[in-house]
Amino acid sequence: MKFLVLSLLISLQAIAGPPARKVVTGADQTNLYLPYLKGKRVGMVVNQTSIIGKKSSVDSLFSLGVNIVRVFGPEHGFRGNASNGAHVSDEVDAKTGIPVTSLYGKLRKPTKEMMAGIDLMIFDIQDVGVRFYTYINTLDHIMEACAENGKELLILDRPNPNGYLVDGPILEDHLHSGIGMHKIPIAHGMTIGEFAQMLNGEKWLPGKLQCKIKVIPVKNYTHDTPYELPVWPSPNLNTQQAILLYPSTCPFEGTFLSHGRGTYMPFTVLGAPLLKGKYAFSFKPVSIPGMSETPQYQDQECYGLDLRKYDTEKLRRSKQLNLSWLIELYNAYPDKDHFFNLTQTRVVGVFDRLSGTEKLREQIRAGIPEAEIRKSWDPGLSDYKKMRKKYLIYK
């Protein structure tokens, strides 16, 4: 009997294949870069996702004797406790006494004077793989500052939880903004290290500058590797479900529907007061300090879709953004003239900047079928995929 059970277990293991190897981030491979930091004055671009093991990478490297002379924090701040879009002030870190400079306040990149006191810059921030998430903009600004001042950038790479996904319209030139700086699709399918190589290779930095970069790659990772973030990347991406739905649900920020800000389930619920009677599910946004102080439809009941239990493996299998929710809710919305949040000129709005094109809004209004909308994203998407291959570190 024991022999039969053992044989069965061996057979099952053979079918399942070898166990998945543990993903090891660039930051966790300290043996590959600690000697490189010796004797250097180090600047660090980090936030709460920048960890070695379970400890802040700044705290860890500081305790190991690395000479960290300045920390730079992106949107949401160095410790990750600032609300979406909130101005972040400079400070001195209470734990280490290191000066912290915000790159989401008066500055978007370090000054020449700051760079003069730095020999090497480290970039270690968890991204989620979409064009409108501002950490890739921070990377662009840091690479520009390093290139201008002859400094090297060391990138401690991290997995992209949406790395399997390369989809959406390519950003059109006239829609360049703080939520879209480069001609890439909504979901770009790259890690920070790969994206940095593309910024250099395509000469996308201002003045076609070239930044000297060194990437510490993630170990045991491919773009299809499922990866659950150990630390949430921002206050409103506070669940794995929200992170995986984000490429599809963030564009709702450009509509008059709530996408869950003002709840503890942002980007996993969608709705509005005007949808009462059309959907049974409802939620009520409220003011939540550190997340959303003045959310859309504050203290009003919103009716719509509950995606908290949506099977995100469907997205992984399809390798596509979900457009059906946008089409469904537009068709259900009674005041279609006020579904998309446009500027006063009613020409270009937040939705257009998020999607990267005005065409998607126009196609949805015109009732164009989803398959036809997707077809219109080519050849731009196909060209991007070919270009992207040149800069991939992982399969």
Commentary on this structure:
This protein is of the alpha/beta class and 395 residues long. It has two domains: 30-216, 3-Layer(aba) Sandwich (Rossmann fold); 240-357, Aspartate Aminotransferase, domain 1. The protein has helices at 2-16, 34-37, 57-63, 112-116, 135-148, 192-201, 240-249, 313-318, 324-332, 350-355, 359-365, 370-376, 380-389, and strands at residues 42-46, 51-52, 55-56, 68-73, 91-92, 99-102, 120-124, 152-156, 166-167, 187-188, 213-216, 269-272, 282-283, 302-306. The strands form four sheets. A seven-stranded mixed beta sheet has the order 5-6-4-1-7-8-11, sandwiched between helices. The protein has a three-stranded antiparallel beta sheet with strand order 12-14-13, with no helix packed on it. A hairpin with a 6-residue loop joins strand 5 and strand 6 (99-102). Mean pLDDT is 91; it is low at 1-17. Keywords: Signal. Pfam families: NamZ_C, NamZ_N. Residues 1-16 form the signal peptide. Residues 42-240 form the Peptidoglycan beta-N-acetylmuramidase NamZ N-terminal domain.
CATH superfamily of the largest domain: Uncharacterised protein PF07075, DUF1343
**What's the helix count?**
13
Which sequence of strands runs across the widest sheet? 5-6-4-1-7-8-11
- Number of separate structural domains: 2
> Span from first to last CA?
43 Å
Q: How many strand elements? A: 14
CATH architecture term of the largest domain: 3-Layer(aba) Sandwich
Mean pLDDT: 91
CATH T-level topology of the largest domain: Rossmann fold
Proportion of residues in extended strands: 5-15%
- What assembly state would you assign to the polypeptide chains in this entry? single chain
Counting helices, strands and paired strands, the structural category is alpha/beta
Q: How is the biggest beta sheet arranged?
A: 7 strands, mixed
Helix content: 25-40%
Q: What gyration radius follows from the Cα positions, in whole Å?
A: 22 Å
Shape: globular
Low-confidence stretches: 1-17
Sketch the topology as an H/E string, one letter per element. HHEEEHEEEHEHEEEHEHEEEHHHHHH
